[in-house]
Write a structure and sequence with these properties.
With about 300 residues, the protein is of the alpha/beta class. The protein has ten helices and ten strands. It is about 40% helix and about 15% strand. Strand 3 and strand 4 form a beta hairpin. Helix 1 packs across helix 10 and helix 6 runs parallel beside helix 7. The structure holds zinc ion.
C-alpha cells in the first residue's frame, strides 16, 4: 500500500505576504523537509492534485460566496477580515487546496491510495458557508467529507481536527449531517472563541475538546483519543479525515500546546490503526495551520511516515 503525497503548484499562488503567518514558505518547508528523507520520498506517490469546481464547493458553500471569491481574485484581491485576504492567485490556490483533498478521497475510495496527506494552503477549517475567516477561504475537509458521501456513497465519516484552534468552519459545515462525526481538540479560550465542550451540535455529532495551554503532551493526546473513542462508539466510519494543524506543536507562535513531533507520530499511528480496523485503512489527512515552518516540515515528514 503506497501513501499519496498530494499537493498543487497553485497553492503557492495565495499571496499573503511574508509578514503574514500563513505564507507560502510553509509549504516550501514541507517539500524541503521531505527531500531530506530520500527513503520516505521514494516510498510515497507524488500526486499533483486538481482544482475543485464551483459546483463541488457548493456542496458545502453558498454559491454567492464562491462567486464573490472568484470575482475578488479576478479584480486583484482584497481583505475579507483583519487576518484573511484574497490575492489575485487565491481563487486558483483555494480551489486547488480543496481539489487536492477531493483527489485524496477519490484515491482512498477507489483503493488506488488508501491514505493520503494533502500539503495544501490556504487552510480550510475556519471557513464558513458564506464567509472566509481565520486564513481560510473554503472548507477543504468539510467539502471533501460531503463529497465522499455524495460521490462515493460513503455513509459515515469521522473527522479528527488537532489544530490548536477550534475547527468552527468544519463544525458549521458538517453539524447538520448526523452521519458526519467531528472531533476537534483546541486551545481554550482562544481564537475563534467557539468550541465549548457543551456544544455538541444539533445531532450530538460534534465532540469539542477545549484544553488549556501548557499541559503535558499526554494530557492532550489522551483527551483526543478519549474523544475519538466516544465518537466511534457504535459508529463505524467508512472514511476518516484528519485536519492536521501543526500549530498544536510546542513553540508554535499562534498556540500554547506542548505536543512534540513524536506525539504527532503516535497520534497518526493510532488513527491508522483505527482506520484499519474500522474502514479498510481509508484515511485522508489535510494540512491546516502550523506557523513555525521548519517544525511544520518536520511534523509533516513524521506524519507521512506514520501514514505509510
Ligand atoms: Zn490553527
Amino acid at each position: 500500500m503506497r501513501v499519496a503525497f498530494i499537493s498543487h503548484a497553485d497553492c503557492g499562488r495565495h499571496d499573503t505576504g511574508w509578514n503574514h503567518p500563513e505564507h507560502v514558505g510553509r509549504l516550501r518547508a514541507v517539500t524541503r523537509a521531505l527531500r531530506n528523507y530520500p527513503d520516505l520520498f521514494q516510498t510515497v506517490d507524488h500526486v499533483e492534485g486538481r482544482h475543485a469546481s464551483a459546483e463541488e464547493l457548493a456542496i458545502a458553500h453558498d454559491p454567492q460566496y464562491i462567486t464573490s471569491i472568484e470575482k475578488l481574485a479576478d479584480a486583484g484581491g482584497g481583505q475579507l477580515d483583519n487576518d484573511t485576504l484574497v490575492s489575485s492567485g487565491s481563487w486558483d490556490a483555494a480551489t486547488a487546496g480543496t481539489g487536492c483533498v477531493l483527489e485524496a478521497v477519490d484515491r482512498s475510495m477507489s483503493g488506488e491510495n488508501l491514505r493520503s496527506f494533502c500539503a495544501v494552503r490556504p487552510p480550510g477549517h475556519h471557513a464558513l458557508a458564506n464567509r472566509g475567516m481565520g486564513f481560510c477561504l473554503f472548507g477543504n475537509v468539510a467539502v471533501a467529507a460531503h463529497y465522499a458521501r455524495a460521490k462515493h456513497n460513503a455513509q459515515r465519516i469521522l473527522i479528527v481536527d488537532w489544530d490548536v484552534h477550534h475547527g468552527n468552519g468544519t463544525q458549521a459545515l458538517v453539524e447538520n449531517e448526523p452521519d458526519i462525526h467531528f472531533v476537534s481538540m483546541h486551545q481554550w479560550p482562544w481564537y475563534p472563541g467557539t468550541g465549548a465542550a457543551e456544544d455538541r451540535g444539533p445531532h450530538r455529532s460534534i465532540w469539542n475538546v477545549p484544553m488549556p495551554p501548557a499541559l503535558s503532551p499526554s494530557d492532550y493526546t489522551d483527551a483526543l483519543e478519549r474523544a475519538i473513542d466516544s465518537a466511534t462508539s457504535g459508529f463505524v466510519p467508512d472514511l476518516i479525515f484528519i485536519s492536521a494543524g501543526f500549530d498544536c506543536l510546542a513553540g508554535d507562535p499562534l498556540g500554547g500546546f506542548t505536543i512534540e513531533i513524536e506525539h504527532i507520530e503516535s497520534l497518526t499511528r493510532s488513527l491508522v490503526k483505527r482506520a484499519q480496523s474500522l474502514c479498510g485503512g481509508r484515511l485522508v489527512s489535510s494540512l491546516e495551520g502550523g506557523y513555525a515552518p521548519d517544525r511544520v516540515g518536520a511534523a509533516c515528514v513524521a506524519h507521512l511516515a506514520a501514514l505509510a
